[in-house]
Amino acid sequence: MPTAFGTDNPSHGHKHPQKFPRLSKPVELLRPSYDILVIGSGYGGGVAASRLARGGQSVCVLERGRERWPGEYPRTLPEVSSNLHVQGKLTTGNMQGKYVETGDSLGLFRLHLGDAQNVFVGNGLGGTSLLNGNIFLHADKKTLSMDDWHPDIKNNPEGLNKYYERAASMLEPSPYPLSYPNLAKLDLLQTQAAALGWENRFYRPPQTTRFKDGPNSTGVMMRASTGSGMDSTGVNDGSKSSTLVNYLSDAWNWGAEIFCECEVRFIKKAPQGDGYIVFFAWHGSNRRVFGNTFEQSLMWVHAKRCVFLAAGTLGTTEILLRSKQHGLPMSPAVGTKMSGNGDILAFGYNTDYEVNSMARTHPDSAPPVGPTITGIIDCRDQGNPLEGFVIEEGAVPEALVSGIQILLEGMPEKIFPRQWDLAHRLRYLISSLRSGVFGPYSSGGSVQRTQVYLIMSHDSNQAYLSLNESGRPVMQFLGVGASKRVAYLNEVLAKATNGVGGTYINNPFFAALGEQEITVHPIGGANMSADGTADRGATTVHGELLTGSGKEYHHGLICVDASVIPTALGVNPLATITALAEHSVEYVAAKIGIEIDYETKNGLLDLFGPPAKRLPLTPDLKEAIEIIEDAKRSDNASTEFTEVMEGFIHVGGEIEDFAVAEGAAMGASSSARFFLSVHGWDTDTFTHRAEHRAMLTGTFSCGALSQDPFMVLRGTFQLFNDDPRTPDTKNIAYDFDMISTDGQMFHFHGYKVIDSSIAFAPWRTWKAVSTLYVTITHLKDNTIVGRGVLRIAATNIGNELASSSITGSSLTSRARAAGLFLLYFILQIAKFFFAPFTSLVQPDVFAAEDKHKISPAEIIQIVACDGVKTTLRMWTPVISKDATQLQSDVPILFIPGAAVDHNIFAAPTIKVNAIEFFTTSGATCFCVTLRVGKTAVAKAGWTTYDARLDVAAALNHITGLYPPGTKVYIVAHCIGSLALSMGLLDGTIPAGSIKGITASQVFMNPKAAAINMLKAKISVPFSAVYGSLEGQWFSCDSSPEDSVFQKILNQVLRFYPVGSRKEMCNSVICHRCELIFGRLWNHHNLNSETHSRLSDFFGGISMRCLSHLVQMGTSGMVMTSPPLSLSTDDTGTISSRPLIDNISLARLQHIPIFFFSGGENNVYTPESTDISYTTLRNKFDKGEYDRAVFEGFGHLDCWMGERAADVIWVSVRAHLMRVCDDGDWVDLTL
After folding, report:
1. Which of 91-95, 174-178, 214-218 has the lowest mean pLDDT?
2. Distance from C-alpha of 967 to C-alpha of 986, rounded to nearest angstrom
C-alpha cells in the first residue's frame, strides 16, 4: 500500500491564526507556462486538476469566481444580493428582451436570463458544486442508450460504471441516515408519493453531504450536517462535499496551482505550435472598472500539453464561441442542442402538513430542515426514456425566507385544491395570518407548511447559445415552458400538492414572466458527437474538440464538464459529469504518456500549511512569495490600485531622446499601452522602506512588437524613490520583464520625473505624475528595442481612483493603511510643489580622501617661487590596445578652479571620472590644487593671479620627471584656466613647456553671466558687506554650529535666483556656492550622490579673491592682483592692471588651444571662450585653435556630470591625440 501523502497532525487547523484556508494563490504568483491548464473548478475541472497533478504534471487552474470556505458563504438577503450577478435578455412573454448585466461579476450566484428558460449557477472555487443539491445518481441505461450518445457509450452504458465508482470514491455519497432525525419535508414527499401511487418509486438518494465528523477521502476534515438546508447558497457547517474539499484539495496537495478571479475569454493555438495560449481577464485590483481595456488587454498563460475546459455548460460554450471568433476552427455544432435538463422549480404552498422547508443557519433550537434534498420520487423507468423524470423535495435558503410568503401569495395562476370546504379555507387563512404576524418560521404558519419541488426530466434539446454584437452570451430556450411535457409535470405536482391540502404555485419566472422556467442544470453546447464527426457534434466521446473537418480534432483541447452531455439526463447530473470527466482524463493521460497515481492516499491535510508537493520555484517567484508571506505575518493592510497608460513606442534604439522617439512612433502609428495592477502587500513597508516597492502584474501591448499582449508578472513599482541620476529628484519607476506569446522576452524600464519643476504649478504636477519615459531592452543582451512615452489619459483618472483599495483584517488597519499611503503621497508631492519652503539639507560629513575610486600613485608637495606650498597628485596610465589609446605616455596636468581640488576631475561619485577616462586612454595624469582651491592656505587671501605661480611650479615639477624637451598637455578649468592664461601672458609660465591646452569655460576673457553681472553692479559689493559682518572668508560648507548670520543667510538663499523651476534644490552647499560663483551646473547632469556630497568638493573663498574675480568678470579680461590692502582708485574700483596686450599675446602663439563652454553656463557666459578664441584666431592666422559649445551643460557639470565623458571628454581626448600625434585637424564638436 502506498504511504500516506500529507500530514497526520489532527490539530492542523487550530494552530493557525488565519480563519479560513486558501488553496488559491495570488495571480502575482502565476507562471507564464504550465503543462496542463484547467479552466473552471467544478466537477470536471476538479477531476482534471487532481488526476493530472497526480500524473506529475505542472497544473494550473483558472477560476472566474472567488475562493470561499464554509463560514464565508452569504446567509442574509443583503449578503446574497451583493453576491448576485445577472446577465442576459430580460424578456416577458413574447416581448423582445433588453440585454442587461448587473451585479458583482465575481459574486457567488450567477443568473443568466434567456428566452423561455433562465439558468442559475454557482461562481466560485468549486463551481456549482458549492450550491447544488448534492444528489449523486447514475444516468439510467435507457437515457445513455439514446441515439444522441456516441456508440462507445450508447452500446455499452455499463462501461461508465467504473468511472461512476471512481467518482463515488472521491465524493463519498450516502443517503440521509435513518438514524438521523425525521425530516418533515422528506416525510411529506413520501406521503405524496403514496398518494400518487408511486410509493415504490420513493427513496432516499445518495448525496455528497457528510453525516459524520472526520476526514474525507482526500484527507480534509469535515463536519456532520446540522441540517440547515442552506445548500443552494452555500453550507457553512462544513458538511458539503463540494469539489473544493475533495478533488481541488487533492490537486493542491499534489502541486497544482490554483488562481481565482480569472475569467477565461478565449483560446488560441500557441504561435510556436506547442500547445495553446489561454487568454483571461483578471478581475483582481478592481481592474474591471476600466471597461473596454479590461476586456481587450487580456492576460494569458501557456498550456504546453493540454487545456481542459470545465467552466460549466455556459462558460465553456461561451469560451469556445469566442475562440471561434478569434480563429480557432471548430464544429458548427458548438453552442447548439443545449438543454435545461427538464428542470422545473415549484411550490406546494400552505399544505395541511408541517413541512419545515425553510432553511436556517442555526437549526439547533428547532427541528432540522435537513440537507436541501433528501428524498426522490424516481419515475425514470419508462418505456420511452424521454418520458422519465424525478421529483425531489427542496428547501428555501434563509436569505429568501422572509419574503417568500409575499412572493408566493402574489403569484398569478395558482392551482387551489378542487374540493376546498370551509374548514380548509379557515385553516388556510389562519396559517397565512400566523406566518404574516409571527414570521415565516412560526409553527403552523403557511410558510412552514410549504413544500418545495425540484423536477428533472427531458426537454427537446433545442436550446442554443450565441454571442451578440457586443460579444455577450445570449441564450434561446424557446418553447421549454410551454411544452406539453412541462404541462403534464405541472399537473402531477398540482395533484401532489392539492392532495395534501396545499396550493400549487409554479416558479416565479414561470408565473410572472410568461411561462419561463429556471434550470440549475444546463447541459450541452459542446455535445459529444453521435458518430465522432463534426456533423453530429462538437467533441469526441472523450471530450476532445473537433476542428469541424470530419473526425479531426484539436489535440490537447478537451471539454470535461456538462457541455459535452448530448441530451437531458432526467436526473441530477453531477455523478454523470464527474464520471465522464474521469473517463476523458484517464484516456487523454494514457494517450500522451501520463501515468496517474490513483493509489496513493493523502494523510490528514493541513490546508493552512504547504502542500506535500510543490512546483520548483524560480528566483523571482521565491522572492515574491517571501514578500507576500512577510506581509501576511505582519498582518498589516495592503494597498492596491490599477493604472492604464497609453502612448507611443518607437521600435529601434537609434533615437535616444524620448520626445523624438515618441514623435517618430506617432508617425508610424506605433501605439502602446500597459494595464498594470500595483500591489503593495504591506502598506507600512511600501511607504516607509527606502525602496518604496510594490508588485506589478498585468499586460503591456505594442502591436509593433507583438500581436498579443505581453504578460507582466512580478514587476517592480517604486513610488517616489530618489533618482540616482539627478539631485533632488524623485522617480515613480516601473521595472518588469515581459514575455510575448511567441516567447520573446524584453525588459521594460519606465520612470516618471518628480522634481522642483512642478513648484506652484498644478498643470506641471499633473504632467509629471502622468508622463512615463519608457525604454525597452532585450532581456538577454540588454540591447535597446524601443523608446517612447506613455501617459495617463484624463478619461482614466476616475477609473484609477475607483480601482484603489485597501485590504486588511480590520477596519482600523485598513483606515490606518489608507492614511499612511495618502499622507505619504501628499507629502512627497508637496515637497516639490512647495520646493522653496522644504527643509534644507545640511551636508553630510564625508572624507573625500577615503572615497577614491582610483588612488593617486603619488602625492607630491610642491613649492611655488614665492614659498607657498601646494599639492600635486599623479596617476599612472592604464595601458591597453584600445583604439582610443594615445601612441605614447603623455603627461596631462589638470588645473581645477577656486574653492575646489582634484576631486572635480577624480569624482568618486560618478561611473567614470575624468582621471579614469584619461589614464585608461594611456596618459599620465597630474592635478595641482591651487592656493585658491580647497586648501587651508586659501584663507590667506590669495588671488587667481597669485595662483599662476602654483601652475608654474607644477609644470616645472612634471617636466623634470621626463626627458628634456617633453611637453605637457594642460586641461584647465575656470579659475585654473584664468591662472594659466595669466602666467602665460606675463611670462611666468613658459609656453615652450606646453604641448596643448583645453580651456574649460573661460581663458583670458572672463565675462560674468547675467546674475553675476547684476551682483557686481550693486553699489555696495557683497564682499564688502560680508567682510564687515563675518570676516574675509566665505565657506561653501555649513554646519549646525554656524553663526546666526550664516543660518539666516542659508534661509534667505532658498529664494535666490536659480533659473528654471527644475534648478531648485534644498542643498545648503549648492545654494551657498551659487551665491558666490553663480549656478555651477544644470542639476539634471549631476547624479544624486554627487549633489548630496558637495561638501567633499568645495571649500571656500576669500573676499579678496572674490573681489578680484568680480573685477575681471565685469571688465572682460584677466588682470593682476589688487593690493593686499584692498585699496581703491578714484573711481572706487580695486586697483589692478590688465594683462592683455600685443606683447603678452605673442607668448600664446604656437600653443594649440581647445576652448569649450557649457551652453547654459551661469558663471561665465559662453561668450567668454568665444572672445578668446576669436582674438587668437585673428591674431595668429595659422594658429591651431578650436572651440565648442556643449548644449545642455552648465559649468562644473562638464567635469562632475555623468554624461560628460560621452559628450565632452571625447572631444578633449580628440584634441589631445591630434596635438600629441601631429595629426590632421579634427572637428572637436562631433
Report:
1. 91-95
2. 20
